[in-house]
């Protein structure tokens, strides 16, 4: 009898051990599945790459990487951080992130390393307030955190009714609220201004949304050889009007009469005379991608209105017509006829 009981106890122990092993194994398997699933779900809908950065900001990239690592901020946000730096200072003052005030100091009273450290810390803090899972999934949540870099963290709470998702309307509404309707509070178009320095694209997709790149090198280079532009897609003092304004394209200094080529298959939508401030210029509506391109200050054209042209086809020659200070090609990329200007550089990289 005692022997039989012992045998049953031994059998029961084996069952419990096997059952426990199965339970632990199942738990580990399920936990691993959940972890992998969670990691896969935490992927931005868009990939970010560096936009057009000044040499000063480019030189600071290693220091930004270190500050982000120290704060535990994922490096995938580096292009966003650099774009904020471009908007805040272009890297041309010691307080590159203009972050001294968030420390309670007067403007421009801290050095570069302190500015980078505090700027990264403040932006990452905003992202965590919005929600790490959210900012890792979609840029509309990143934009809330970035707008709060300009407005202050109060903007994040203001977007709660919209699930912390950014919209331009919410940015304007917050400005009106804080300024009592005068508009004298922060920059309601801060996101638009920052995103000028970010290249956005979906891998393997056709990105034709306004403000985004359709992919590196999508367009045929408009000149016979690649060269550096003398004026980029950025705010500058207009050399003729002396007004501080956004330069809507890239200016390439080249010799008079240099051939100019179509960026892609298109229809000629404008073939103007010298009466235009752009001088003799050609505007093309491209067959795919939803983009328009403009080629300005030409000496003459070799196309006519409504003509169909092919990628790389000769369309004109460099000149200095219109509001121009010398021979060059002014090149623009737009998302509609004469509007929705975006940085051309990623298209012809």
From TrEMBL:
CDD domains reported in the protein's UniProt record: CwlT-like, M23_peptidase
Parts of the chain that traverse the membrane: 9-28
Record keywords, A-Z: Membrane, Transmembrane, Transmembrane helix
Pfam families: Lysozyme_like, Peptidase_M23
Molecular function terms from GO: metalloendopeptidase activity
Boundaries of every M23ase beta-sheet core domain copy: 246-335
SUPFAM superfamilies assigned to the protein according to its UniProt record, in alphabetical order: Duplicated hybrid motif (SSF51261)
Domain of life: Bacteria
InterPro entries cross-referenced by the UniProt entry: Cell_wall_metabolism_enzyme (IPR050570), CwlT-like_lysozyme (IPR047194), Dup_hybrid_motif (IPR011055), M23ase_b-sheet_dom (IPR016047)
Keyword NADP: no
Keyword tRNA-binding set for record: no
Ranges of residues in domain CwlT-like lysozyme: 57-193
The protein's name: Peptidoglycan DD-metalloendopeptidase family protein
Source organism of the structure: Vagococcus fluvialis
């Amino acid at each position: 009898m005692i022997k039989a009981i012992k045998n049953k106890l031994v059998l029961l122990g084996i069952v419990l051990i096997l059952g426990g092993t199965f339970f632990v194994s199942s738990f580990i398997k399920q936990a691993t599945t959940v972890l992998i699933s969670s990691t896969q779900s935490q992927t931005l809908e868009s990939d970010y790459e560096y936009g057009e950065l000044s040499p000063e900001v480019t030189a600071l990239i290693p220091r930004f990487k270190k500050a982000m690592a120290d704060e535990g901020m994922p490096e995938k946000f580096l292009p966003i951080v650099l774009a904020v730096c471009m908007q805040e200072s272009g890297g041309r003052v010691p307080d590159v992130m203009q972050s001294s005030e968030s420390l309670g100091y007067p403007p421009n009273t801290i050095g570069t390393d302190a500015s980078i450290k505090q700027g990264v810390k403040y932006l990452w803090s905003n992202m965590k307030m919005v929600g790490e899972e959210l900012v890792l999934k979609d840029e509309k949540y990143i934009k809330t955190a970035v707008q709060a870099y300009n407005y202050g963290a109060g903007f994040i709470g203001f977007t709660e009714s919209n699930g912390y998702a950014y919209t331009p309307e919410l940015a304007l509404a917050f400005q009106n609220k804080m300024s009592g309707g005068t508009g004298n509070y922060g920059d309601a178009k801060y996101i638009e201004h920052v995103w000028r320095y970010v290249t956005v694209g979906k891998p393997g997709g056709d990105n034709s949304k306004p403000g985004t790149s359709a992919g590196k090198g999508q367009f045929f280079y408009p000149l016979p050889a690649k060269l550096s532009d003398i004026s980029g897609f950025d705010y500058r003092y207009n050399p003729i009007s002396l007004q501080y304004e956004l330069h809507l394209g890239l200016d390439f200094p080249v010799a008079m009469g240099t051939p100019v080529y179509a960026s892609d298959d298109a229809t000629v939508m404008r073939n103007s005379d010298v009466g235009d401030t752009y001088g003799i210029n050609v505007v093309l509506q491209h067959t795919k991608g939803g983009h328009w391109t403009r080629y300005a200050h030409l000496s003459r054209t070799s196309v006519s209105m409504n003509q169909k042209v092919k990628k790389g086809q000769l369309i004109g020659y460099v000149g200095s017509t219109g509001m121009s200070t010398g021979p060059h090609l002014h090149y623009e990329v737009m998302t509609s006829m004469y509007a929705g200007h975006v940085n051309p550089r990623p298209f012809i990289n």
